[in-house]
Amino acid sequence: MYRKLTKEEQRVILHKGTEAPFSGEFENFFETGIYHCKQCNQALYDSASKFHSGCGWASFDDCLQGAITEQLDADGRRIEITCAKCGGHLGHIFAGEGFTPKNIRHCVNSIAITFEKSSPQ
């Protein structure tokens, strides 16, 4: 069952929009847990893969296995990332920037994800 989305969430997730840089709740958020697709609740990213890039959006250098689909963006220049379960737009992938040893950045709209804090062990 999909979550009911606000108009702004629909603009980003369903219509491939982008939230304004530095406006998302997860850009400077670094608690331990799992990030999920806001529309279908599919687990997408572990907080261990999140890093601060200064780009204005949440940044990850890896996703959970099988959680993300990559496809060439309509502009033919960027790689769009979508939720593998529901197809919701998450953002784009950029390579070669040197932020982490993996040299990849999943640039994710905070409005497209939710966060579930991990329980202390």
From TrEMBL:
Names of the cofactor(s): Zn(2+)
Gene3D superfamilies cross-referenced by the UniProt entry: Peptide methionine sulfoxide reductase
Endpoints of the signal sequence: none
Keyword Metal-binding: yes
The keyword Metal-binding is annotated on this UniProt entry: yes
Protein name: peptide-methionine (R)-S-oxide reductase
Catalytic activity: L-methionyl-[protein] + [thioredoxin]-disulfide + H2O = L-methionyl-(R)-S-oxide-[protein] + [thioredoxin]-dithiol
Pfam families referenced in this protein's UniProt entry, alphabetically: SelR (PF01641)
Entry keyword set: Metal-binding, Oxidoreductase, Zinc
Domain of life where this protein originates: Bacteria
Enzyme Commission (EC) number: 1.8.4.12
Class of the enzyme per the UniProt entry, highest EC level: oxidoreductase
SUPFAM superfamilies hit by this protein: Mss4-like
The MsrB domain, residue ranges: 1-118
PROSITE patterns, alphabetized: MSRB
One record GO biological process: protein repair
Gene Ontology molecular function, alphabetical: metal ion binding; peptide-methionine (R)-S-oxide reductase activity
InterPro entries registered for this protein in UniProt: Met_Sox_Rdtase_MsrB, Met_Sox_Rdtase_MsrB_dom, Mss4-like_sf
